[in-house]
Amino acid sequence: MDRSSFEEMLNAGAFDAPKQRPTLETITAADLQQKDIPPIRFIVNNLLSVGLNIVASPPKYGKSWMMLALCLAVASGGRFLGYTTNQCGCLYLALEDSQRRLKTRMDKLLAGKAAPAGFHFATMADTIDNGLFDELADFLKVHPDTGLIVIDTLQRVRGAAHGKEGAYAADYREVGTLKAFADSHNVALLLVHHLRKMKDDGDPFNMISGTNGIMGASDATMVLTKEKRGDSNATLSVVGRDIESSDTVLRFNKDTCYWENLGDADWFAEQQARREYQESPIIRTIKKLLEQSPEGWIGTAQQLLEAGRFISHTSLAPSPRDLSGKLKGLSKSLLDYDGIVYERKSNGSGGGKHSFSYMGAQFEELEQTEFDPF
Predict the structure, then answer these.
(1) Are residues 54 and 145 in the same domain?
(2) Angle 292-294-296 (CA atoms, 0-180°, nearest 5)?
(3) Residue 234: strand pairing partners
(4) Average pLDDT of span 8-34
(5) Which end of the chain has the lower number of beta carbons within 10 A, N or C?
């Protein structure tokens, strides 16, 4: 073998010791069963835990007010959206705000009270691939009591694309590195993000800007949505690995600038439906007719319209046909809320009569042809 061939083989590693093959690190089911694993550390009980968390909504929805209120609550050990917090230090990277704007907002929320200790702001920070983690690690060394870091927004700290890396791979890699940092330092890292303009009534989490890699790498995700931008109420949908999924109705109080928890979305919808039912002039008319005729009432849609004008001082519907359609939609609520049985007796020509009676009441069909308010 000549010298040049030997050097080529040497440079190629032909004479290196064989590399040890990597092996899986495993644990038996029995050992895992006996292992003492500490419980999950919550910053906001049942809502926000150590790890990587995301909150997303369209722009100008009040996320920054919410994040500021969150940090103030956690730093002081107060309540946030009705949830209890576990007091710890907070770092808020408000990368789309100025100190002037932050001061104005904080003064509004505190309403004359002193700011809590252990709450720090930064309005500038490096990106993920250009020193962010070093900055955060240095801060945690100086402030080891910090348990919550808010980055507002994710887009402000994102790095450059890696070669031909796809969008999903880039999203998962960047959010994954943020999660790894949160896990290794035992802090809750909360990323503020945006939603697409396109609405998805089936799953609000499909509206998160970017690919599924963003949500896939997170421990918990919260999405704030409204039916219409101008609505006062919003729904906070939450899903996570270590928390129960929930949908909560919130309202932004313009006087205090705090978000208020109005309750579980299903419960709130039920209460709203009940209020709308009770305030319906159709329902008020029917209950008044049954008050006057406890044995029951029967009549045409036209007669019911005339009764509505007299009893509720309004038109119950544009036409008898429209009123018949509304009564069909109210039949279940009449029975569920007030125990009123509704039946429509068709005459085969598109008309017919409508009967109402309380459940169990003895009802004799009345052959009345007109409504007599007297």
Answers:
(1) yes
(2) 100
(3) 250
(4) 78
(5) C
* Triad 289, 295, 299: Cα angle to 5°: 50
CA angle 54, 55, 58 (to 5 degrees): 135
Whether the CB-CB separation of 248 and 264 falls below 8 Å is answered with yes
175 pLDDT higher than 50: yes
Instruction: Find out whether 105 and 64 touch, Cβ atoms under 8 Å.
Output: yes
CA dist., res. 197 & res. 57, Å (int): 10
Total domain count for the chain? 3
**Co-location of 171 and 27 in the same domain:** no
Separation CA 346–CA 351 (nearest Å): 6
271-292 tens-digit pLDDT: 888 888 999 999 999 999 999 9
Strand spans (E) along 128-258? 146-152, 188-194, 220-225, 233-240, 246-252
Q: Which CATH number does the domain housing residue 349 bear?
A: 1.10.10
Q: Give the global pTM.
A: 0.75
Mean pLDDT value across residues 207-230: 90
Q: Which of 4-18, 97-111, 275-289, 292-306 has the lowest mean pLDDT?
A: 4-18
> What is the H or E stretch that residue 122 is in?
strand 119-122
Range of 348's domain?
A: 280-358
Residue 72 domain flag: yes
Same domain? 158 vs 141: yes
* CB distance 192 to 149 below 8 Å: no
Tell me the pLDDT tens digit for each residue of 313-359. Answer: 999 999 999 999 999 999 999 999 999 999 988 765 556 899 999 98
